[in-house]
């Protein structure tokens, strides 16, 4: 069923199957031109505590539905998301800035997790294990952990919620999410569709608020919450892990990255450029799996750079709703200033701008698609998550040095390399300390694959057959007297 776009634009939070208002409101703006889209209810921490109460109350009913019943409701939610892909995509572009084709791609990507976990809901198998004596058996059951709370970022306003909520609901958990205050509209539209799909009151709740710290405390400290899941920066993630410690919650963290993208001398350079364009410039470089350090072997460095520059020069900045636009604005002025400073400070240390290098103008939030050569592994662009449309090209000599440079970071989310030699492909794949390795592939996200990081990029996996584990408890039954 396709709804009118207006029916998907909500200005209240969604708690216990109701749209609720608050004393205060906050403004949601379009990063393309700063225009106000809508004012949304700014919930207090007390109201968020009530939302947890609603999720807690709804838990036993949801848990006790059959897996088939939960699966059918999730399938309806999936179908509604796909039926409304155009309107959801437009709304996402308006609040977030990414080009419409990408926004619609995100809706399909988010929905694919709802479908995937609707199917996985049916396959929560246990085990029977031989017992220690003839009249004993060991049985293993898997049961939902309970109320799950989540905090999600602005760069994927639909998919970061769908990945978590679909798994939680499939497992039989109830869910309360605080979306980033920059992008609450996609989350609220998802709530409307969950409601239309018939997902019961209290099972999926969206709490909108600008009080990140106050609400963050409630979501991580209320003892009725059994699991907390976060996608965002490593710095905030560390605080939230600590906050979860007092009530010993299960925790999943999808934190920052510093993805290496390596091009070896035996690589197909055209394919490598293609992969880099997909990995680097999606969402104007604002993803945690974007290539951050592009390491290129000396002997192919100039050839790779020339091919890359041809492609980067034709990227088109503009309003994501307009045809042909491939690069949207950055999310806010702090993001723009951060990217500009990383470029400026690296240039001061010897990096050379090949194209771009500046904010597009004084008023907007656009940063020019940029390539820099001569970048050193210790320069600011190499040591920080850039989160902008900037490619630093770092030369390397041999495979050993490439792996050392790639692993020389606290992060371990995504990595990429291009090579053809099968021995090298194994050695490098096994040598990289990363949760995800794209081998001759720049587009790595898929509901069937386990997404997640090592080191300070976090723990837990989203999507795939492993994705339900984070939302399930394992219960061991010791059967005696048989
Ligand atoms: P990003 O760089 O992607 O904005 P953040 O970690 O700053 O990453 O934000 C991700 C999410 O965490 C957002 O929803 C934001 O509102 C929330 N957040 C930021 N600071 C805190 C905090 N101290 N406690 C709880 N949530 C926070």
Automatic annotation (TrEMBL):
It comes from the Bacteria. It is an enzyme of class 1 (oxidoreductase). Belongs to the aldehyde dehydrogenase family. GO terms for biological process: gamma-aminobutyric acid catabolic process. Keywords: Oxidoreductase. Residues 19-476 form the Aldehyde dehydrogenase domain. SUPFAM superfamilies: ALDH-like (SSF53720). One of its GO terms (molecular function) is succinate-semialdehyde dehydrogenase (NAD+) activity. InterPro entries: Ald_DH/histidinol_DH (IPR016161), Ald_DH_C (IPR016163), Ald_DH_CS_CYS (IPR016160), Ald_DH_CS_GLU (IPR029510), Ald_DH_N (IPR016162), Aldehyde_DH_dom (IPR015590), Aldehyde_DH_Superfamily (IPR050740), Succ_semiAld_DH (IPR010102). The active site is at 254. Transmembrane segments: none annotated. This is Succinate-semialdehyde dehydrogenase (NAD(P)(+)). Its EC number is 1.2.1.16, 1.2.1.20, 1.2.1.79. The lineage of its organism: Bacteria, Pseudomonadati, Pseudomonadota, Gammaproteobacteria, Alteromonadales.
